[in-house]
TrEMBL record:
This is SnoaL-like domain-containing protein. Pfam families: SnoaL_2 (PF12680). InterPro entries: NTF2-like_dom_sf, SnoaL-like. Residues 7-108 form the SnoaL-like domain. It comes from the Eukaryota. It comes from Gonium pectorale (Green alga).
Length: 117
């Protein structure tokens, strides 16, 4: 998650499998394929260039769909950013990152809705 900034985004993309999927309840959408994920991330990080995540808990949990053969990592975090109106924002959240054990690449990401203010 430390690499998830506009300045280091190019270091994130090689971590994904070409056919990876990404689902964000916070954004209300999903993307399939590295090109599609990149097309979501680049404008998102351009819109919120100061966004940062503080990982508060991380651990391997039981595998699940859509990648039951993958290693599933649950990450709890605090997200900090400046809104478009200039307001400092802080929200907690969770995501699950599914990693293919053979390639070591991310095959699916599921981001839950952010905690309410």
């Amino acid at each position: 998650m430390r690499l998830s900034t506009s300045a280091t985004l190019d270091q994130v993309f090689p971590l994904f499998a070409d056919d990876a999927s990404y689902m964000s309840e916070s954004l209300g959408s999903s993307w399939t394929g590295l090109g599609s994920i990149r097309g979501m991330m680049e404008p998102f990080f351009a819109k919120f260039p100061d966004i940062r995540w503080e990982v508060t808990r991380m651990g391997v949990v039981a595998p699940s769909e859509p990648a039951p053969g993958a290693v599933r990592v649950e990450v709890a975090f605090v997200r900090r950013w400046t809104s478009e109106s200039g307001e400092a924002m802080v929200r907690g959240g969770r995501e699950w990152i599914h990693v293919d054990p053979a390639s070591g690449r991310i095959v699916h990401v599921h981001v839950a809705a952010l905690d309410p203010a």
